[in-house]
Write a structure and sequence with these properties.
single chain; 333 residues; 9-stranded mixed beta sheet; 29% strand; elongated
Length: 333
């Protein structure tokens, strides 16, 4: 091992220092006796390999800790695991709107609706087999759907409509809880929280989703899985005691993007099927809770919001690239 190069043993040690000990490339370089540039270049290569594996990059999260492996990792696995810390050393960028979310302060610039997740990812997910750690999302062919109290067209019903943004309808997506031949039991993005209903199978497109999130309020963490594989953990800001983040099983209903990515709400904001139990109206919205970025990373790890869940802006960018609408989000104490 020389000042400008790392031999195989040195590369394995660099992966261990970054992935397991949580050192920055600069600190790891000093420990190994190589230049900071050498360590950064090596970690950047691992990041590229990590992206090729379609895993998350752990952007903006220095405290990420990889899960304990069940078996000794190979050199390749070490390289992939190490990448989750790479973007911790990229400066974090500086939006839920009043028209959409009631969980945080308004961004007067307003949102723009965008498509969640990469198109190629959604297509591959739709072809994937249904497993125990996958869910189904029903994409409604239209701007409204009638939900029934039971799978019977004569039962009590209500019309669920798509949210509107800048004069246009956002996608109407429902998380599927149960399936029958002609009916689907779905979670509804309406008040009261955790409402469900039955919709007819015709008129919707079903998509399989491997991703799922869990929010741990007391620990101020948001955890991500793909199937049965743990992907990442990040610090979050959550609701204050007077405006708490509601607990329960919800899902991503829509994704919006502000004209100013350096604003209060970051680059993107996912709407949740959850609503604040305290804030019943906010601007023209109905108190919908969101998961969004922030230009104030100091608020992460604290109870700072009016109910929304704040993540590092780089993290919400990763979520927007990979997570489709309908992704389940379990919020617990």
């Amino acid at each position: 091992m020389t000042q400008g190069r790392l031999d195989p043993a040195g590369r394995r040690e660099l992966a261990r220092l970054v992935a397991e000990d949580g050192l920055s490339p600069r600190e790891a370089a000093g420990r190994l006796g190589v230049t900071e540039g050498t360590a950064r270049r090596m970690v950047a290569r691992w990041y590229a390999a990590y992206e090729a594996e379609q895993l998350f990059d752990g952007e903006g999260e220095r405290e990420w800790t990889p899960p304990v492996p069940r078996r000794a990792p190979t050199a390749t696995r070490r390289r992939v695991a190490g990448v989750a810390l790479v973007m911790a050393f990229v400066p974090v960028g500086a939006f839920a709107s009043a028209a959409l979310f009631g969980g945080d302060d308004a961004d007067p610039s307003g949102p723009r609706g965008v498509k969640a997740g990469a198109t190629d990812f959604q297509a591959s997910a739709a072809r994937a087999p249904r497993g125990k750690n996958t869910t189904l999302a029903a994409h409604v062919n239209g701007s409204s759907v009638r939900a029934y109290a039971r799978p019977d067209g004569r039962a009590r019903s209500r019309v669920v409509r798509a949210r509107r943004n800048e004069g246009r309808n956002l996608p109407l997506v429902l998380l599927v809880d149960k399936r029958r031949t002609r009916w689907l039991k779905v979670s509804l993005p309406t008040r009261p929280n955790l409402s469900t209903g039955w919709i007819r199978r015709r008129g919707v497109r079903l998509r399989v989703n491997e991703w799922r999130l869990r929010v741990e309020l007391s620990k101020h963490r948001i955890l991500l899985w793909r199937g049965d594989r743990f992907i990442s953990s990040h610090r979050i800001g959550v609701g204050k005691s007077v405006t708490p983040t509601p607990r329960g099983r919800y899902y991503f209903t829509d994704l919006v993007k502000p004209p100013n990515p350096d604003g209060l709400y970051g680059s993107y904001a996912f709407g949740l099927s959850a609503h604040s139990k305290v804030v019943t109206s906010f601007g023209t919205g109905d108190g919908q809770i969101g998961v969004h970025g922030t230009n104030n990373p100091k608020g992460l790890g604290r109870n700072v919001s009016s109910g929304c869940i704040r993540v590092a802006d780089s993290v919400i960018q990763s979520y927007a690239r990979h997570l489709p609408l309908g992704t389940p989000v379990v919020i617990r104490r």
